[in-house]
Amino acid sequence: MKRIAEFLLRRRGGSGWHWTDIVTWVWLVGGLLIMFGPALWLVGSSFKSPAQLAEFPPTLLPYVSQQATVEGYDKPLTLYDVTLENGEKRRLAEIRRIGIVAQMVDPENPGEVIKVNIQNRTPAREVGFATENYTEPFLHFDFLLYLRNSVFVTLMATLITLVTNSMAAFALSKYQFRGRSLVMLLILATLMVPLSVILVPLYSVISAMGLFNSLWGVILPTVATPTGVFLLRQYMLTIPDELLDAARMDKASEWQIYWRIVLPLTAPALAVLAIFSVVWRWNDFLWPLIVLSRKELYTLQVGLNTYAGELNVQWHFILAMTVVTMIPVVLVFIFLQRFITAGIAGSGLK
Amino acid sequence: MGSLKRNIGAALAAPVTAAAALIDKPLRAWQSATGTGGMATFFLAPNMLIFGIFVLFPLVVNFVYSMTGGTALFLPDRPFVGAEHYERLLDCTDYTDPRSCKDDQFWIAVRNTALFVVLQVGLMTVVAMITALILNRDLRARSFWRAVFFFPVLLSPVVVGLIWRWILQREGLLNFMLYELGGEPVVWLTDRFWAFAAAVGVSIWAHVGFYALILLAGLQAIPRDLYEAAEMDGTRPGRVFWRITLPLLAPNLLVVIVLALIRAVQIFDEVYVLTGGGPGTSTLFLTQYIYEVGFASLLRNPGLAAAASILMGAVLVVLTLIQLNLSRRNSGKGGGR
What we know:
Helix content of chain A is about 60%, strand content about 10%. With about 350 residues, chain A is α+β, with helices and mostly antiparallel strands. Chain A has three domains: about 1-45, no CATH class; about 65-125, SH3 type barrels (Roll), CATH 2.30.30; about 135-345, MetI-like fold, CATH 1.10.3720.10.
């Protein structure tokens, strides 16, 4: 406790509170609440039953109503906290309800039936998780299909990105050839052309190739990332050419030089690009929304948007599916965050 | 456990290694036939092929496309209409009033986007700057705090939109908090003003960590001895900020602003999920206009969408050129990014 207080009250320099110390702590604690709060609220809500989601005021934790099996009754009975007429508080189980009067029994002593006005009772609840929010979408919706599509798109796109970008980066960093600066310029130029600018013609290209309503139509336009080529090229430039020349002396082919020497040495940059590519492709929304119109081909993001756009939004499922969609990115965040922050700080990649 | 992992690794790597070995022989033949120039072509080919088909070709076609009419998808089936779409988009008697324009939706989108860009980039830069300054202090567990602000950056726009839709709905968390504080509940997402404010706020929430990170890297590159010298001279902290921090951070700050501008102009995903462009057209932005005119609406007009996207692209090209110029100047000085 003392340690925590000491930690919380640590000040600049050590003597006296400076106003900037207060600003710092307000900002950091406020940031913690605002940045993590919404996601935690989502996760908490995703375990609530539909009835509980409709409650106002909302509870922080998910609850389920308690039930008890009582001797003489086949089904488990719902428990209530009841205030009796003499002011006594007891926990009773409901047998049946007629209008505003409920017939209830004490689970310990099921012989005596007590009649209670329903205004004098509240459901007995305990913290519990409505896990059916998670299992139902997997069983009864196409959610599993969406998940599979998303995984396929993400893995394939990342794999192709790594191979094609690293090959191009190798050529651009290790060879002198005519038109090299033209190629560099072309790649540089496309930094200015985000997908949203070429939506219409790209759609017609995809359709002409028969890739409309195909996961490959989602994958291919995204893989030739200029940022990836640049990142890898910058890294490969630091690999000394002498290494390559030595390998050539030993009769290594150019392909072997790329595959056995340059690629392993570029591993750190490849790892950064792979992480980014996974996050990019997992999160892609607009392009899959355009290319995929058949429901069974939807990726998670498109499927989620469709469910959330329905007239009668089933929030308990939506919230659970949103949490599932978030999981891979959260895992990346937890385990690989330092690669990402290093990548951004180093090259402004996003 | 270790050997199992190694075995799995070896099993996964084996076909890749075999494939790499297999194509080595034909490649050697190709190499001896064409020399290193041919090898450069070989290494560039896959990337440039994909790049040409899916980026360059559409880019060129986009210009032609924007000058054709009708609803046909393929270019040869589309009649040439010249500059008709551009005339339609740019035909306004009063550019400040979308109702006076031939294509009022486009100008509403332009106006909304402009307002969004100014507000979002302005506020976000300030928030990112404060965050970076605070993270640059002598904090314990700095990487934890950095991660706190960075967390939403990785979330998908759809997830971001849904998280906030859930919080901002009528019986949502925010209204509950207002109610606890004694305020009146607000219908955040169906009120024109609040929906727009939510679009700005949510997009700041989702992206500010990214820019704070770039600024933090810039702050950490400022030599410590400058601050030590200032401290020895007894310079006030405010003066230190204006005279040392800000001038030395200026290149990073400019890059951040331009990057943020480029992304804000294209805003779509999270706002689309959050508000769907509504209520009415109050959060209709350019990319959504292009998407709806090109793909979604009943009165599909791909040519018009192409023309609008070219106009948006022109803005982006200018911004990107500024950014490239800035980062080249930065790296030329050997500092910053």
